[in-house]
């Protein structure tokens, strides 16, 4: 008698094999059989016609603070994710000297746009060392499993104090001390080490992330911790990743290849398409696979950009007449903005000084695309842009934008792609997603709360790439599922998940493939202290199981929390 049998599912097992019909049985959190006759069970789920996939493994999240107060780990858990890896990009909350708590919060707030007030209210600081941080997580339960990495920024400031925080050069003694902390953290169960070198990552005080300018002796010296332990991934946001220096990425690939060969460990880095050099990504992909180095570029499934709305960022946020209304509750603010006199005044104003981001929105109306309330299109055609619509109707683009922001009672949202959309299509992205070294990442679950909401990338993979894409070739469903399951699990040596096969963890998604669809992102104020964050829900997820326990039913949490901290690699 099994604990659970899922009958008649269309199984996409995570190996890249084409879908096939089978029953799947589960006992004590493990898959016991896959086939036509798997025996009886205490609970039987009729899955006739539904997809059954492994639970999705998201390797690029920032739940380092949220995991201490939110066991559900939304929004990732809303999209079939059953395992996350956090501690990316060199930022996190351990090790944490007692006088560095506020500084670590400011670092995370500046780099990852998580409200500092929410982090201050939510984090209980039960730790100082990294092993103590793992112990604090180990005392908690979640809707999914989570693993973490040792962040360079926190380590550097812990060892070097203000010298480390201000990016001064590390001495040999500093490097030895940092290596010891990273080795201690990985030995205690961290899945790797992370750092950041991009100039777009700054603390709330404007200082670059500690380690941004680290010399090779520091980068390689810390990496030796992974070599000596024979485990762990070296993850980074490389210099030039967001286009701030188009000559930097190739140089970064060169030292990353040497590092990977020197320490014998995988190195994984962010890879995005940059408008000013739209084909550079192809060169970087080929360089990353040029020899026996273990380089794994992390790629996304849609454009990377900003969400434009009255509740996040928009073109009028620095206009004096809007500033007077900005703190009003949304319904009252919308009512005032609909006043023709207020509209005329705001449109006529030229703010001085200008907010950089608001100015960017005003400058590039051809890069603004409305998102539908249901199943929004993340590969919009140029003729759907604000510029095209304004020209077609004989209107000023900013006046049209003003009216669009007021639609749906002020909850309308537009997308402004900044990266991964140089050709106004996702052809380059498709090529990235099919490269043998590329892994799916960059969803940033838990981060960028104010104007990015990419934790929903798994749903985009299913709905857009495997089913709906009309402006180019799609991707086979089995390829899409493998990228989100076996491939990401394998990179982090989580060999017990990511595939539907006997003996594997019963982390599973039962999906109505025809109904899979995103909702438009919405702003919630549910972080500690009423902090805001964008959340995007989805349709089509019938059930999600973690270790054999159902944690979601039709998009709603069941109340069960079988997820645990992952300590170290899994055979």
TrEMBL record:
<dbReference type="GO" id="GO:0005829">
    <property type="term" value="C:cytosol"/>
</dbReference>
<dbReference type="InterPro" id="IPR032466">
    <property type="entry name" value="Metal_Hydrolase"/>
</dbReference>
<dbReference type="InterPro" id="IPR013108">
    <property type="entry name" value="Amidohydro_3"/>
</dbReference>
<dbReference type="Pfam" id="PF07969">
    <property type="entry name" value="Amidohydro_3"/>
</dbReference>
<dbReference type="InterPro" id="IPR011059">
    <property type="entry name" value="Metal-dep_hydrolase_composite"/>
</dbReference>
<feature type="domain" description="Amidohydrolase 3">
    <location>
        <begin position="43"/>
        <end position="552"/>
    </location>
</feature>
<dbReference type="InterPro" id="IPR050378">
    <property type="entry name" value="Metallo-dep_Hydrolases_sf"/>
</dbReference>
<dbReference type="GO" id="GO:0016812">
    <property type="term" value="F:hydrolase activity, acting on carbon-nitrogen (but not peptide) bonds, in cyclic amides"/>
</dbReference>
<protein>
    <submittedName>
        <fullName>Amidohydrolase family protein</fullName>
    </submittedName>
</protein>
């Amino acid at each position: 008698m099994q604990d659970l049998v899922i009958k008649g599912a269309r199984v996409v097992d995570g190996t890249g094999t084409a879908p096939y019909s089978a029953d799947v049985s589960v006992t004590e959190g493990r898959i016991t059989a896959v086939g036509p006759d798997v025996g009886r069970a205490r609970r039987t789920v009729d899955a006739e016609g539904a997809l059954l996939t492994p639970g999705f493994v998201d390797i690029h999240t920032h739940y380092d603070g949220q995991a201490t107060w939110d066991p559900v780990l939304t929004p990732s858990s809303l999209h079939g994710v059953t395992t996350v890896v956090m501690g990316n990009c060199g930022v996190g909350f351990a090790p944490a000297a007692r006088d560095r708590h506020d500084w670590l919060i400011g670092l995370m707030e500046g780099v990852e746009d998580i409200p500092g007030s929410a982090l201050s209210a939510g984090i209980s600081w039960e730790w100082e060392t990294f092993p103590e941080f793992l112990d604090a997580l180990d005392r908690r339960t979640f809707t999914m499993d989570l693993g973490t990495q040792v962040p360079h920024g926190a380590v550097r400031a812990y060892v070097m104090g203000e010298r480390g925080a201000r990016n001064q050069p590390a001495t040999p003694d500093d490097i030895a001390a940092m290596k010891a902390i990273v080795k201690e953290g990985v030995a205690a169960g961290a899945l790797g080490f992370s750092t950041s070198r991009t100039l777009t990552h700054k603390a709330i005080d404007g200082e670059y992330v500690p380690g941004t300018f680290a010399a090779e002796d520091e980068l390689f010296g810390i990496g030796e911790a992974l070599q000596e332990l024979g485990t762990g991934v070296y993850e980074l946001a490389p210099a030039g990743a967001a286009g701030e220096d188009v000559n930097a990425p190739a140089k970064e690939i060169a030292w990353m290849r040497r590092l990977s060969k020197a320490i014998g460990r995988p190195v994984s880095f962010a890879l995005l398409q940059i408008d000013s050099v739209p084909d550079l990504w192809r060169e970087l992909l080929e360089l990353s696979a040029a020899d026996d180095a273990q380089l794994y570029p992390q790629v996304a499934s849609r454009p990377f950009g900003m969400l434009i709305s009255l509740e996040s960022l928009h073109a009028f946020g620095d206009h004096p007449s809007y500033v007077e209304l900005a703190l009003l509750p949304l319904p009252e603010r919308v009512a005032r903005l609909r006043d023709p006199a207020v509209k005329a005044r705001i449109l006529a104003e030229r703010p001085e000084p200008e907010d950089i981001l608001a100015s960017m929105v005003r400058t590039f109306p051809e890069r603004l695309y409305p998102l539908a309330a249901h199943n929004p299109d993340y590969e919009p055609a140029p003729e759907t842009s604000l510029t095209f619509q304004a020209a077609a109707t004989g209107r000023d683009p900013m006046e049209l934008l003003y009216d669009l922001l007021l639609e749906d009672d002020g909850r309308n949202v537009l997308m402004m792609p900044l990266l991964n959309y140089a050709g106004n299509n996702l052809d380059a992205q498709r090529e990235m997603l099919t490269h043998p070294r590329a892994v799916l990442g960059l969803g940033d679950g838990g981060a960028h709360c104010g104007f990015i909401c990419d934790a929903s990338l798994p749903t985009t993979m299913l709905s857009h790439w495997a089913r709906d894409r009309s402006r180019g070739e799609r991707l086979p469903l089995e390829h899409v599922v493998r990228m989100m399951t076996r491939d990401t699990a394998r990179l982090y040596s989580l060999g017990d998940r990511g595939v539907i096969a006997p003996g594997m963890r019963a982390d599973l998604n039962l999906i109505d493939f025809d109904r899979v669809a995103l909702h438009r992102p919405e702003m919630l104020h549910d972080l500690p202290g009423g902090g805001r964050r964008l959340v995007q829900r989805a349709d089509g997820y019938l059930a999600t199981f973690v270790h054999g326990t159902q944690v979601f039913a039709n998009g709603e949490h069941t109340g069960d929390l079988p997820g645990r901290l992952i300590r170290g690699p899994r055979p």
